[in-house]
Amino acid sequence: MDNARRRALRRLGWGMAGVAGMQIALPSRATPTYPSRAVRLIMPYAAGGTGDVVARLIAEGLAKTWQRPVVVDNKPGAGGMIGADLVAKSEPDGYTLLMALTGLVQAPSLYGKAAYNPVRDFAPISELATSHLALVVQQDFPARTAKEFAEHVARQGQPLPYGTYGLGSSGHLQMEIFARATGISLVHVPYKGEGPLVNDLLGRQIPAGVVGAVTARQYAQAGKLRPLAVAGGSRSPLLPDVPTFRESGYAGLERQGWIGLFAPANTPRDVVDKISRDVNRVIVSDALRARLVDMGIIVKGSTPSAFADVVKAEQEYWADAIRAANIRLE
Question: What keywords were assigned to this record (predicted)?
């Protein structure tokens, strides 16, 4: 073998060895199968409300799908902002998720300085469902319609207290819009979730409140509370005899509430897509769908990009509505 050929072979051998060495030295870019450990699902309201029940049903379904624990962690306060801010500041790895209500996009416009931006600080996963909220009063309250409610408050000549599941919540915002439309004076009493509010309604500590349609139906059937009107563009299937606020003569309350799943911004897209696919499979299962429908929850489901469009549109809508109604919370 001549020297030229030996040198060529030597160069080839060293080159192959070098490539092999580089392949061994380079770390794998493949991410572990998600999830490889427990997932924390933050519910920014107290246990016992409609949203909390939905969160626990979703968590149960995902836990079965993933064969990993999905733990619901209630972090109530500040109209849901405490829990939302916790998720916004969490590691963007898919192991801390947020089950949010419409209040997520309303808070930045309601408060001068919100701790998070609902579009910038979260990765939308899926819009899971929509629901109706209802204005309810105690059974002996002297009103059977929203109009009679407004007339009664006006006659009293003093502010009437009402409760919602949180400061800056959809119920709070809707009642502020209603108060401005009717010219009546109301005093908002915020609770850390629907459960504590219902306890005080039943205990006669507060005369009126805004609750989910399923809660309104449950206590109306038991003869303990009376629903007067529902928010949204159509009547609730759980309360077919209860008119909407618009039917009652009051515009500005046509938006329905939604329940959605979020991750922190910058969560890897493959993780977001996997969670979205899996949660959409969970909510269309016959057993879960039946339970949600019985609760008055309209199952929806969507892709991350479709939900991102909804979040942006909802933020713009509520910002305009809040500005038009001149509502500002401190």
Answer: Plasmid, Receptor
